[in-house]
Amino acid sequence: MNKPIYLFDTNVISxxxxxxxxxxxxxxxxxxxxxxLLPEPVIHEIERGLLYRGASRQIDHxxxxxxxxxxxxxxxFADWRAAAALWAYTKKQGHQFSDVDLLLGAMTxxxxxxxxTNDRDFDHLPMVPTExxxxxx
Length: 137
Prior knowledge:
The protein has a single domain (6-135), classed as 5'-nuclease (Rossmann fold). The protein is built from six helices and five strands, in the order βααβααβααββ. The protein has helices at 10-18, 22-29, 40-53, 56-66, 77-92, 99-110; strands at residues 6-8, 36-39, 71-73, 114-116, 130-131. The protein has a five-stranded parallel β-sheet with strand order 3-2-1-4-5.
């Protein structure tokens, strides 16, 4: 049986940068590095927020300590198309998602992975498997 592939939502990576959550860091360390994926859109969200706040130490921490723990995964054109389909699906259900969240969902589906998040936003996308690591053993 293949080991799962994990993609990380911005809120989880942000927790590593902001609070250096020891429990989350331990959970990440327990997984083989090739199964830990950092989507490019998450890098965009993390860095834009830190740059806006002028948080140079946190940017350095993200770039030098946090990001190297993961394999960076690029967006493919097919992800944009799948994200458009997810947008239409959620809009018809009465829910609004950000483009980044839709891309994360599309990438998770494409890679047959599990999205690691610490909120319930993706509950409205049942086709996207999620886990909430900071709150699971």
